[in-house]
Write a structure and sequence with these properties.
Largest sheet: 3 strands, parallel
Number of helices: 4
Number of strands: 3
Strand content: 5-15%
Radius of gyration: 13 Å
Number of domains: 1
Strand order of the largest sheet: 1-2-3
Shape: globular
Distance between the termini: 15 Å
CATH class: Alpha Beta
CATH topology: Rossmann fold
Order of helices and strands: HEHEHEH
Length: about 100
């Protein structure tokens, strides 16, 4: 089973998140859909359009509703999603799932 990343980097808005992702090239990004500036979906799309970030997994978090999240997240290239509110164990499980699927791809 994949171990969880040892380092976590936080961003306060979508533009900062994208700058950090491009600089750090993380294995996984967890994005809130409703961020100031660029939305999480816009950041996800930018990650998917950047060939240098092809190995980066993306999990979307949102309170917009499970059905809308389930339909929209894959359109932007997200590897997974969780609806708010969620349990920390659910996020941990989703992180492990996405990292494992990225490693085996």
């Amino acid at each position: 089973m994949s171990s969880l990343p040892a380092e976590i980097v936080e961003a306060s808005d979508g533009e900062e998140a994208l700058r950090l992702v491009r600089r750090e090239k993380p294995a996984l990004v967890v994005l809130d859909v409703m961020m100031p500036g660029m939305s999480g979906w816009e950041v996800c799309r930018a990650i998917r359009e950047d060939e240098a970030l092809g190995g980066t997994g993306v999990i979307m978090l949102t309170g917009i509703g499970e059905r809308l999240n389930e339909m929209t997240s894959p359109l932007y290239g997200a590897d997974g999603f969780l609806d708010k509110p969620f349990e920390l164990d659910d996020l941990t499980d989703k992180v492990r799932e996405v990292l494992a699927s990225r490693e085996s791809a």
